[in-house]
Amino acid sequence: MAGGPIGQQRRAVVVGAGIAGLTAAIALQQRGWQVEVLERATEVGPAGSGLSLWPNGLRGLDAIGAGAGVREQALSATEAGMRDPSGRWLARTDIAGFRERYGDLVLIHRTGLFEVLRRALGDGPLTLGAAVHSVVVTEGGVRVEHSLGTSTAGLVLGADGINSTVRALHWPDAPPPAYAGYTAWRAIVTPRGPVTSGGETIGRGERFGIAPLRDGRVYFYGAADQPAGASSPDGELAELRRRFGTWHDPIPGLLAATDPATLLRHDIYELPRLRSYTRGPIALLGDAAHAMTPNLGQGANLAIEDAVTAAALLDRHSDIATALTAYDRLRRARVEPLQRLSRRTGIALQLSWAPAVLLRDAFMRIAPVGPALRGLAPVLNWDPPTG
User: Fold this and answer.
1) Which of 90, 139, 218, 271 could form a disulfide with 82 if both were Cys (CB 3.0 to 4.6 A apart)?
2) Phi and psi (nearest 5°) for 145?
3) Is 94 in contact with 139 (CB distance < 8 Å)?
4) pLDDT for 271-320, tens place per residue?
5) Contact present, 127 and 121 (Cβ < 8 Å)
6) 3-class DSSP state for residue 63?
7) Does domain 6-177+270-380 have CATH number 3.50.50.60?
8) pLDDT tens for each residue of 157-208
């Protein structure tokens, strides 16, 4: 019977081989589950962007034995904060105080994280080019029909992103992703000179972020208020240069080093609140459950949290239904406040009315560092549950 004793059904199908899916598959596999990962793409590991792994995400990776491999490929943050377009610091991050209070913060090429996770998983459980068509709960478990055949399991984890097929099939009343009001450009470049300082520069309805990587390259992103689906007549790189080309160094140099063919542009969407992340023996993880705006840098970290939490609870409880009920309760209580905080943060950072921007920047310059550092506790003070 679906949702029955875990001991009888220790087989899981994970839909999606992103960060949430691979982490969940590793965590379950390490706990004795037979796991199959179905990925519709023909290769895993998107290139062209970087990400921040915060202490909470690193603790999750440590729980599956992948933390050391990630740290080998990552660069620990050295200097960060907020600036205005002239380069004046509005607020500096106390990196030493941050590490002492919470742990390390590292920057990594997204492909590097995927390489670590792929090695930890092994090739056997992963099936590429498998587009899921249906997920049917049966008396004996769950049947997943996909482009390469049929898979059966006692548990299905939908980790297939903001436009999740699993969510569409079993949460038909879920609201669609909502546009946040701004678009983002991303690239990884090799600068002409060393870039050691990261952080974000905020203007009027525009911002630009810099993250040095371990190999000397730099991940950057730009964001700007735009109607959804807007295009740049002269090309995306020309649009970035128009918006940010006169901002402080090293921004013009990073744009000069950018290959237009590697520049990514995506409108920013978030997923409105779901009333539950689970339906019977099916659970959603990562962006499939709670895609949020990227303003806290927590998307990948919360996906890792979801994955290791689900695996631990499936170990702790004697049946799948009880485990997923606990997962739903814990994860919604954890994630929903952060979704709201990320949305509010984005509104503040994307302000475009000149008087409001002046007030925001003035407040940032006078705000004491200590309370700001302590204010990160609700985001970063998370530890993996034990099974």
Assistant:
1) 90
2) -100, 130
3) no
4) 999 999 999 999 999 999 999 999 999 999 999 999 999 999 999 998 99
5) no
6) helix
7) yes
8) 999 999 999 999 999 999 999 999 999 999 999 999 999 889 999 999 999 9
SS3 248: coil
* Rounded distance between C-alpha atoms, residue 241 and residue 122, angstroms: 42
Residues constituting the chain: 387
Mean pLDDT of the chain: 93
Contacts of 290 (CB under 8 A, 6+ apart): 271, 274, 277, 302, 331, 335, 336, 339
CA-to-CA dists, residue 219 to 95, 194, 212, angstroms: 19, 13, 6
The two counts, helices (H) then strands (E), for the chain are: 14, 19
- In the chain, domain spans: 6-177+270-380
Residue for token pair 């730009």? 222
Q: Round to whole Å and give the CA distance between 251 and 200.
A: 11
pLDDT tens across 1-29, in order? Answer: 456 666 557 999 999 999 999 999 999 99
Nearest to 153 by CA among 275, 272, 2: 2
